[in-house]
Write a structure and sequence with these properties.
By secondary structure, the protein is α/β, with parallel strands linked by helices. Helix content is 31%, strand content 28%. The protein has two domains: 38-105, Trypsin Inhibitor V, Chain A; 115-180, Trypsin Inhibitor V, Chain A (2-Layer Sandwich). It has a three-stranded mixed beta sheet with strand order 2-5-3, covered by helices on one side. The longest helix is centred in the N-terminal third of the chain and has 31 residues, at 2-32. The protein is elongated.
Length: 181
C-alpha cells in the first residue's frame, strides 16, 4: 500500500507539471503562431532589388503574400531585368498576416540575343571547342575527312554556320576535321 501511495504522489506531481507547462505553452502558442493563423500585424519586408521568386519567398516567410505586376514598357535599367522595382505598401508598414503586398517586376530582357560565330578554320579541335565555348556556342564534329597535307591533320577545315554569322546562344556549330590519309 505504501508503494502505491508513493507512485500516486509522483503521478500527481507529474500531472501538475504537465498541466502548468501546457498552460504556459498554450498561452504563448497563439502569439507565436499568429502569422500562420492570419492574426496579428506583421512588418512588410524590403523586397525591392530581389528577383520575383526571392521576393515571394521573403513575403511568404513573414506571413504575407505577393501580387506581381509587370512593369509596362522596357526596363529602365537593363541590370534590373527580372527584379522588383516597386512595392506597395512600403517596407516597415504593419499589415495583418496573410495580406497582399503589390510588387512590380521589371521585364526580362528579350531572349532573342545573338552571338557572332568565330572563325574556326585552321584550329585544332581543342582550340575550336574553346573558341566556341567562349562565344557561348557548342561544337559538333560532323565529319572527319581525309587530307593529303599533313599540316592540316587534326585541324578544322570547314564549319557551318560560317565565321561572322549570327547564331543563338548555345547553338551547335558543325565542323569538319581533317583526319589524315
Amino acid at each position: 500500500m505504501g508503494a502505491l501511495r508513493g507512485w500516486g504522489t509522483g503521478l500527481a506531481l507529474l500531472l501538475v507539471l504537465v498541466l502548468s507547462t501546457g498552460a504556459v505553452a498554450g498561452d504563448a502558442w497563439p502569439r507565436a503562431n499568429s502569422r500562420r493563423l492570419g492574426q496579428g500585424q506583421v512588418p512588410v519586408p524590403e523586397v525591392r532589388g530581389l528577383s520575383e521568386a526571392q521576393a515571394r519567398a521573403e513575403l511568404s516567410r513573414t506571413g504575407l503574400r505577393g501580387r506581381v505586376h509587370q512593369e509596362s514598357g522596357p526596363c529602365p535599367d537593363p541590370a534590373a531585368a527580372g527584379l522588383v522595382l516597386r512595392q506597395r505598401p512600403e517596407p516597415g508598414a504593419d499589415l495583418p498576416a496573410s495580406s497582399w503586398v503589390e510588387i512590380t517586376v521589371c521585364p526580362q530582357a528579350p531572349s532573342g540575343r545573338r552571338v557572332e560565330v568565330p572563325n574556326l578554320q585552321g584550329l585544332d579541335e581543342i582550340q575550336a571547342q574553346a573558341a566556341l565555348k567562349a562565344a557561348g556556342l557548342r561544337m559538333h564534329v560532323t565529319k572527319r575527312i581525309k587530307c593529303e597535307r599533313p599540316e592540316r591533320m587534326g585541324k578544322v577545315v570547314c564549319q557551318m554556320p560560317p565565321a561572322g554569322e549570327q547564331a543563338r546562344p548555345s547553338q551547335r556549330v558543325g565542323v569538319r576535321v581533317c583526319r589524315g590519309r
